[in-house]
Amino acid sequence: MYRDLLQQAVRLATHDPTRPRQANLRRAVSSAYYALFHLLVDEATRVQIGAQHSQAAFRHVLGRAFAHGVMKEACKSFGGGSLKKGVAKGLPAGFVVPIAIRDLATTFVNLQDRRHAADYDLTERFKRSDVLVLIGHVEGRIQAFNNLASSTEKRFFLACLWAWKDLANR
Questions:
Q1: CA angle at residue 32 from 29 to 33, to 5 degrees?
Q2: Whose CA is closest to 33, among 124, 119, 99?
Q3: Taking the domains of the chain in order of start, what are their residue ranges?
Q4: What's the whole-model pTM score?
Q5: Longest CA–CA separation in the chain, Å
Q6: Cα(81)–Cα(63) distance, rounded to whole angstroms?
Q7: pLDDT tens-digit readout, 13-69
């Protein structure tokens, strides 16, 4: 689904040939955010449930447990490169968040803020060039994350996206 949402974002941002409508640019920003959101939910549920077609219904049900605010808090920590004490406690000494995860997490936080501005702040004006750069940035971060080999660190990040609230308060 995330690929479709990214394509939709590009189509919306480029729909009006001469004078882009704010509604299209705003929806493009929102679509880019939801592309990243759904990519992360899909990846996390595949780690938890499995990637087989027969497991799709279970992934979809588990996917409903992901909350935007919780994911943002987890991404703030991972994006900063150091985890909260309650989360880091018990991890191997010298645990380092891989750069592809840090970059993707930071992008998620920033993109969620831009989506809020696009959806709720009518005083905010968007430019086509900025929106297209944002979409390209999201595509690049997703590509880098997808190219990151499966690892304990990657699986841990994905699990933290739904478990963060409980982990961070321990």
A1: 90
A2: 119
A3: 2-168
A4: 0.92
A5: 56
A6: 26
A7: 999 888 999 999 999 999 999 999 999 999 999 998 888 999 889 899 988 989 999
